């Protein structure tokens, strides 16, 4: 079978496979499920899932804060009319279970055989009787649970707490937000005075921005890569062929995701860009070597055969190390990171397969290209790289000293890196959505949920006097020491019923003094327990209860300290023979992720380094060469860790992936270099000449691929997500430092460690030879 016929059949088969992959890729959907970021397989997650079946999710709510206009307060009649209008709109929505609003709040009073409700606010009477307004505001500020929950402490804003149906998805969540914004407009409330917070808001914003940013990143990367490819090869096919290969690899990678039923989330949204810039490496090495062979006078068939032979081994190893770098992310207990590592690693291998099937087939069918400015004595890059190599040799002592100083400083600064995260910390501080969430932290009880399950011991129920006394003790600690600004528990329900049965006076908002007083509440308790605001606080049989609340988002470091102190208080100050407790909730699970970040990162890096070590040992059978490879690739990692410490960048879910990815990518060029060196040494016994020849052959591809990688990751700097921004910045810096180490430290380490064995002394004649433009003959 002729070579051209084989190429045609190869293209036909790959086209069919690409069409199939495109079909599955079209099935992909965008998704941002907050629950996906919980630590999979963790016992606390299993416990929380059982807890939600008993009491419901702790984040099935939407907060809407409304600021009073100029010259108004939260108790101004005109403003309250607007609030009531928006409240009515919220209560009519299909996916709204209950709305807590200052205009619908009422106090229940039981007298004799009847019960009636008294609203806290009477806006229709304020104009005729200003004293009523003063009395109502005084009552609101004296009633526990209202200030900070539905009215701000400065009386300049009110909040609606909108309970939604469980696990509200994006389409109905978006519809709810749209209807509420329309209600604001009809009520005459400008959006500048309205602030939304809650899972529905984050879910809507994240998914919409993911779609838009994917388009931006790919467009910028496309233009950047086209420019660099043209500047490097100066031929149309040197631009088009790599793009065809990499775009095909992206379709294949997304097709695998679609076939496995995986959605595009905040992490997997990076896969196309990651593959676009990383997948270029093999194509550039192939075309660069192919052009070099053609430039040295080789025929097309011979040039292609030599290119595949010499590039295949190094490219295969680099694809392996890169995919391993991504696969190590599968050690993460966070599902989006796990999926990102798995499918990006698979896509890298697919890109390698296409690079050595699709690209050679297209080169076979392409007529022998006429190179721009053919040269008899090497290429333009040879002179530049020759002078650079000579400069490195002349300044070897300075390079080693600077490397040592940079290493020491980086290690010192890296110790300042802290693991810390907060809700929505992937959004910049100036983002409007994050500012809205911050409004609730500044003016209300906050947005961070708190959950504590209450389990009576010794056959008691949550209504037992001793259990209620212990519950109230926990509430006082949470309010005074822990920082909980709003809470509700079975004790809240009992106090409310007691107040209702004793005329509604504020002094009666308390627990009964004795068992007899509590016995009188049993009947009313069954009725009050059915009200929406109390429905999820106690199980029907009273065997367990829930202490729920909200607080300011203090960040994971502070939260860990608070939770540690809380657990100590519960162990030492609460009678566990009466009441047992367990901290749970979505915030607790997010904090749990931070405990695993360091371990996951260390595991990933250890696996990555171990695999690279094994590969180099198998390749060179030399421990010294292993050290030569690891030093210039670990040094940039430590430098970037130092940059993080210097800039005060915290380690969090989004930035924890940086080091394993960067190491896996950065080691690629080293693998290419040493594999080419291995081939060169088979027919060049002099080490100095072998290193110099390898430097000239590999240098162009190393620099170009590094520029594409740095530029590609640099497009992430335009992201509105802080996590994505830092992924782009820090991986880009790592790769930039990596190429510098590749072109300076790597050849010096090889010559320094193996120089005596090969009788290399670095004579002045060698330096002079290195600085001259070499006349390299074709193999």
From TrEMBL:
It holds the Pfam family MMPL. It is found in: Cell membrane. The chain crosses the membrane at residues 214-233, 240-264, 270-291, 312-334, 340-366, 398-419, 601-620, 627-647, 653-674, 695-719, 725-754. It is a multi-pass membrane protein. InterPro entries: MMPL_dom (IPR004869), Mycobact_MmpL (IPR050545), SSD (IPR000731). Signal peptide: none annotated. SUPFAM superfamilies: Multidrug efflux transporter AcrB transmembrane domain (SSF82866). Its main location: membrane. Residues 243-365 form the SSD domain. PROSITE patterns: SSD (PS50156). Keywords: Cell membrane, Membrane, Transmembrane, Transmembrane helix. PANTHER family: MEMBRANE PROTEIN MJ1562-RELATED (PTHR33406), MEMBRANE PROTEIN YDFJ (PTHR33406:SF13). This is MMPL family transporter. It comes from Hymenobacter ginsengisoli.
